[in-house]
Amino acid sequence: MKELKITIILLVLMFGMPAYAALMYVGDSPQCNQSNHYDTLDQALLAAIINGNEADEIRLTNTISYQGNNFGSYTISVPTAGHVTIAGGYGNCNDPQNTIGPTIGNTDNPVFEIKNNSLVSLRNLQISGSQSRGIIVDEAATVYLFSVDVSDNVAGIRVLGGAYVEVDNNSTVYGNGDLDDIPKGGGIWCFGNNSEVTIAGTIHNNQATSGGNMYIEDGCF
Fold first, then answer.
1. Can you state the percent helix, strand and coil of the chain, rounding each to 5?
2. Which end of the chain is least crowded, N or C, by CB within 10 Å?
3. Is residue 75 within 8 Å of residue 108, measured between CB atoms?
4. Is the pLDDT assigned to residue 9 strictly greater than 60?
5. For residues 159 and 150, what is the distance between their CA atoms, to the nearest angstrom?
6. What is the DSSP letter of 131?
7. Entry pTM
8. Distance of CA 6 to the CA centre of its chain
9. Are strands 133-137 and 164-167 parallel, antiparallel or unpaired?
């Protein structure tokens, strides 16, 4: 699984210049030919780290695939990136409006593991096919889900270590987990002091030995 190393923060300090909000696209087409266009989500995340702005947005185009072990799993562990939004469903680079979000996943690992006080919004994405959890949020990270479908993963979302997750009313956690193989929270499992989940979306048809849709342990709000 690819990981953005915390040591990359040093690059930000070396530049010593003010950062500005950036709009980035990920894609592979003749239209994806500008300095804010990147071949992979990893490259765009690195650019957001270096930019270090309060509000960068990465737009995923439908010109490439985000599935498989090499392209369907991401670890975000750099708080100096500011608030990074990853939004899916853009037809091509520079398109101003999005449509149906792409599927990210079909990987042996978590699709997104977000930790170390990172602040991330996920918007208009289908998170599916993980042989681990669809999303893991740890180490006081904050994650907002907007129109995100977390479905058909071995398990859905795990929140721990004082992290915060917000599931908006257009998001769905569906069809994750297993009665025999997942002991707790097939849909959402939250534990650890000061961990918190706010739910306005739909959570249904998830399975686990205990708490099929949600398992909320002591310390989690």
1. 10, 40, 50
2. C
3. no
4. no
5. 14
6. S
7. 0.91
8. 17
9. unpaired
